[in-house]
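Marked as duplicate of an earlier ticket. Keeping the data here for the record.
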Amino acid sequence: MDVATRKPKVIAIMLTHNRRDGAVRRCTEVLNQTRAVDGVVMVDNASSDETSEAVARRFPQVEIVRLPENLGPAGGFAVAFAEGMKRGCDFLWVLDDDVMISRQCLAYLLEKAETSPMTVVYPTRLPPNEKHGVAWRGILVPAEIVRAVGVPRADFFWHLEDTEYFLHRIVERGGFRRLISEKAVVWHGTHRPRRGFPGWKLYYQTRNSVYYRFYLKADLRGRVKTTARILGRLVAIAIREERGPAKAWMMLLGVKDGLLGRLGKTVDPRSEPASTLYRESPTSMLEEEEEARRRWGDRLGVSPDPQAQRSNGQGDLSAASLSSDRAP
């Protein structure tokens, strides 16, 4: 039967890594949509904080795929897409563990998709007036498009894997359209500070940017801009950053590997000491969500008051409640 004449099957796919409370929140929001999903697949990217156990206890209907090692967002979403497609869906709803989802998000995404078949539909992201990019932030992808272009590239490991997939492969090479639903709303965090960026992230940023511009896009203007940006940042980091020379060296390695086309997980994120300036902990991200819940609760359809959430049938999503569920 044609999708237009029946209720489309939607599988939500979510990737998580060492963000147990965030994964629990996302599952709560996905399973409390006004338009119910037809399945949820969570890929656990080798978490060490009992993420899978916490989700399995609260949500037995969620299918959990545990990876033996951290494959990065690129490898993790490659697995998630493949697993979602195995369920015979019409759409994949793609989510990260730090995307707060409005209660009518899926219903509005599908409403937009019905008006324009074979189109990737993006939600509107909060906060407004910021450069958002594509990211894994609640995008609805028709299964037919996935079959046409394949799954995300696992060999990018971290950085630009979303741009390569949604912009380069789907839009530029595949020729498929993308639309934004003004009514489907998500909140997807704030930009992290540039200072104190870990060396391994600088490596993958540099490597993938060089590879993307020199091999996939292959336009002279883009190559010049990318080269100038990398050189400027390399000098600034070498002079002003903590462990600046070591980080600059990681960027140089990224340039070399990008030009040689050496992709994959080539640098382990655990290979360097933690930064004293850069913080991206589950606790700080949870605090960001609480602030967003206060500021954007009306547009997201969630209450900043945990007691009100319980009365609305959304479950207790307070930080205290989530933390209390930790295994001893």
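See parent ticket for discussion. The radius of gyration is 20 Å.
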